[in-house]
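Usage

Read records sequentially. Each one opens with the input sequence:
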Amino acid sequence: MPTQNDHIEHCDHCQHNANFLASFLLEHSNDWSITVMFYIAVHAMEAILSNNGINCQSHQSRKNELEKLDIEGLNTALCLYKNLERKAHDSRYKNYKIYDWEVHRVYKDILQKIIIWFNSQKIGKEIQLERCSQMDDKWFQKYKAKDSECYKCH
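and closes with the structure output:
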């Protein structure tokens, strides 16, 4: 059975990955940016499960166990999580050319919403993500430099 420290450890991994993502987001390796976003969500969901006395060893068992829980807002978060899992899989195995605008949308429309929901659950430490406005600043700098990708999102 998972201990209190187990879900705190998942929160620590979640924050560690969020910090790592911020170090290269929209600058290098968009395929890996989406993959790191997925693992931020994985650790958030693991913390939710651990908080409910559940420990999973695979992606499928994690989804199965999450579907059994009755937590307000979890169904929406789980749909976002599954979508992020598909996008991470596709970015690694099907489509290595991921545009900045796609990363921005995944971050804003999926990851941020998962983490906002997770933080509302008050499990361990609150996860801090780079604000979308900070990402927008990076986009603005690229736009000013005439980066051809920027017009697709802004």
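Summary fields computed downstream for this record:
- Residues 112 and 124 are 18 Å apart (CA to CA).
- The radius of gyration is 16 Å.
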